[in-house]
Design brief:
Blueprint lengths: L2 H10 L10 H24 L6 H26 L11 H5 L1 H8 L6 H19 L18
């Protein structure tokens, strides 16, 4: 799947969390998102008169948040994992203080952060992994040779 078709597919399946997504569909959409973020941030920092670009960045972020979460869920489905796997690192990275309070044991914040980073690395490996070559519980195999 090429860049244009990948981005088009992601926006056509705006909030479709079922089914499967190929590696190219996921990574091209990821590339589009982060390229636009980088360009808008660089422009808004280099040219102070273009401060409205932060507003444009916020609008772009909100417009692509749901499709990005959806394509990530579909990518995880392609490797036969639940779409919920994408939130595994969040408790460790966002709520380390809460984890310390709930555990009732005082321990350094470093271990939960390391666990979160390890889970992100695991997710990146899943995103890069080849999808199932057969039908799985999330849908039919993706045939990119059409």
């Amino acid at each position: 799947m090429d860049f244009k078709k990948s981005v088009k597919t992601c926006f056509q399946k705006y909030a479709t969390f079922n089914g499967r997504a190929s590696r190219s569909e996921f990574w091209y959409f990821w590339l589009l998102n982060y390229a636009v973020y980088a360009i808008l941030l660089i422009l808004s920092n280099k040219v102070p008169a273009l401060g409205f670009l932060f507003i444009v960045l916020g609008i772009f972020f909100l417009a692509t948040l749901i499709p990005f979460i959806a394509v990530t869920a579909r990518r995880l489905h392609d490797v036969n994992k639940s779409g919920w796997f994408q939130i595994l690192p969040l408790p460790f990275l966002l709520f380390t203080d809460l984890l310390i309070l709930l555990a009732g044991v005082v321990f350094p914040k470093i271990p939960p952060i390391l666990i979160g980073v390890g889970l992100y690395i695991y997710l990146i490996v899943l995103y890069c992994s080849e999808g199932d070559k057969k039908n799985n519980r999330f849908g039919k195999e993706i045939n990119l040779k059409k």
